[in-house]
Design goal:
alpha+beta, 2 domains, three-stranded antiparallel β-sheet, disordered N terminus, binds protoporphyrin IX containing FE, oxidoreductase activity, acting on paired donors, with incorporation or reduction of molecular oxygen
Length: 510
């Protein structure tokens, strides 16, 4: 019965979309927030489906940072959206315990298993503590830098050499996705998928990862009963999801077995451990924890941890790098300033070498440019919460029990109240203090890495990786956007570019 209702919901929603779109086009009126009888605000959302992020931002500007979405007669489709920093601070930090991710999130993101993104309470606390201990381990930092630099030297540079020699265009977004996929696989298991090479090979498990991301996003958009029907019938996106899930799981379990064998066979000399300090080796050695990771049936737990880390560290980084290089390629003065800083602080002349963390930290202008990119194009554009109990937000809005809440990180970067009248301008300078350091902005205003107890554990690691890549690319190559190539965000869980980033590459030296 519930399934039929879900199916009807979709048919009616589409009918309503066509009738209303025709009617509204002819009336030449497009109100930002209109609450229709029966259909609520769904028509407005459907008419703006190609520009959901902008539409949400307009609704939030219209509602002074708060928007109550009404789904009309459609069950379970009401939610509220906020971009008010005080409300955000309240939800993410001050009253954190009242705002878990909620059951809808759990269901949609089911492929993640019981990893950190879907866990709550004590299980989440233990997982987070463990992840932080790995991230703060010196051996992990060394391994991270080593993997990143090697991927630059043996993956990225050969591809850029190749395309610059032939004078052909390349999709930088695709290169970054391949880059981060290979590196995150190395960091998690010590396994290199080698997807970033001149041939740009099709790697089935990498493709499966992309397919899963797309299918999960479709779940997100459709009424729950509809995607559940598709899942039950094993058709459409749900069939695709199941197939991709199987392929990716095979890769995960094979990598776990390979990593176990490697760990058993390798000598336990401290030098070797330092050379390959992966998340998995840390999990397996975590005898003090609650789980015995050495026993075979703990593979499911390892699979869930590994998948969460791959999901966390792959697309976020590649999305940020793509938007960053778009800004650099289209703002020659910013490119010049980054180049000057690299020359001054690193005495860099195109030769790749191992940078210390202090050297990378000295690149203030580069850091500011990355922050500015994250402000306007946060790789995770929304955050989801559900109110356990009724609450009142600092803005005065009432939140009834079980309200679904969205925080629009994307919109927060575009609010005058937070960033001033020039909030839509790309200005790295806004991040630099008079003394020449990086301006501190509280995480409930600059939310790209989330705020409060669930803030990103990979923030420092991300800056290290992005700086290594940025220095290598900018000091060796000039990137030119292919003329007429459209740049626009994709509707997805992660803020990718819809059509990729097509560029031509020329060498700076020789
Ligand atoms: C530019 C790069 C990155 C951005 C913008 C970013 C952003 C975020 C955001 C917004 C969240 C909160 C998600 C939620 O609660 O639903 C998050 C959580 C997380 N991130 Fe990142 N992230 C980045 C890179 C990384 C990397 C490289 C890793 C490690 C491989 C990582 C590991 C995590 C983990 C484990 C969490 C879960 C924290 C928790 O729930 O306690 N992130 N990140």
């Amino acid at each position: 019965m519930a399934i039929l209702v879900g199916y009807l919901e979709v048919v009616v929603a589409f009918l309503c979309f066509f009738v209303l779109s025709y009617w509204m086009k002819n009336k030449n009126s497009s109100p930002i927030v209109k609450d229709w009888p029966i259909f609520g605000m769904l028509p407005g959302l459907l008419l703006n489906v190609g520009r959901v992020l902008e539409h949400t931002t307009e609704s939030l500007i219209y509602g002074s940072g708060f928007h109550e979405f009404k789904g009309g007669w459609f069950p379970n489709s009401d939610f509220v959206v906020t971009s008010d920093p005080m409300d955000v601070n309240h939800i993410l930090t001050k009253n954190f315990a009242n705002y878990p991710k909620g059951s809808d999130f759990q269901e949609v993101f089911e492929p993640l298993g019981d990893g950190i993104f879907r866990s709550e309470s004590d299980v989440w606390k233990a997982q987070r503590k463990f992840m932080l201990s790995v991230m703060h381990d010196k051996r992990f930092e060394l391994f991270l830098k080593k993997c990143t630099r090697q991927k630059v030297e043996k993956g990225l540079i050969p591809v850029l050499e190749h395309v610059s020699k032939l004078g052909i265009q390349v999709d930088l977004q695709e290169l970054f996705q391949r880059f981060t996929f290979d590196v995150v696989g190395l960091l998690v298991f010590g396994v290199d998928s080698n997807s970033l090479s001149v041939e740009l090979p099709l790697i089935p498990h990498e493709k499966a990862f992309d397919d899963m991301e797309e299918a999960v996003f479709i779940r997100y958009l459709l009424p729950k009963s509809f995607w559940k029907l598709l899942k039950w019938l094993q058709i459409g996106e749900e069939k695709k999801l199941k197939e991709a899930w199987d392929i990716f799981d095979r890769f995960l379990y094979q990598s776990i077995s390979a990593a176990r064998e490697k760990l058993i066979s390798r000598s336990k000399s401290p030098v070797e451990e330092e050379e390959e300090f992966t998340f998995l080796s840390a999990f397996l050695a975590d005898q003090g924890g609650q789980t015995d990771y050495t026993c075979e049936n703990s593979n499911k737990i390892l699979r869930d941890h590994a998948f969460s880390l791959m999901a966390a560290g792959r697309d976020t980084l590649s999305a940020c790098l793509t938007w960053f290089f778009w800004f650099v390629a289209t703002n020659p003065s910013i490119e010049t300033k980054i180049l000057e800083e690299i020359k001054e602080k690193l005495q860099e002349n195109g030769n790749l070498r191992f940078f210390s963390t202090e050297e990378l930290n000295s690149l203030v202008y580069l850091h500011a440019t990355l922050c500015e990119t994250l402000r306007l194009y946060p790789p995770v554009p929304f955050n989801h919460k559900t109110a356990l109990e009724a609450d009142v937000l600092p803005s005065g809005h009432q939140v009834p029990q079980n309200t679904k809440m969205l925080i629009s990180f994307y919109s927060m970067g575009r609010m005058h109240e937070i960033w001033g009248q020039d909030c839509l301008e790309f200005k790295p300078e806004r991040w630099i203090t008079k003394q020449g350091g990086i301006m501190h902005v509280p995480s409930y205003k600059f939310t790209a890495f989330n705020a409060g107890p669930r803030s990103c554990v990979g923030k420092d690691m991300s800056f290290i990786q992005m700086k290594i890549i940025a220095v290598a690319l900018i000091s060796n190559y000039r990137l030119q956007l292919v003329e007429g190539h459209p740049v626009t965000p994709k509707n997805s869980i992660i803020l990718h570019m819809k059509y990729g980033l097509k560029v031509k590459v020329t060498k700076r030296f020789g």
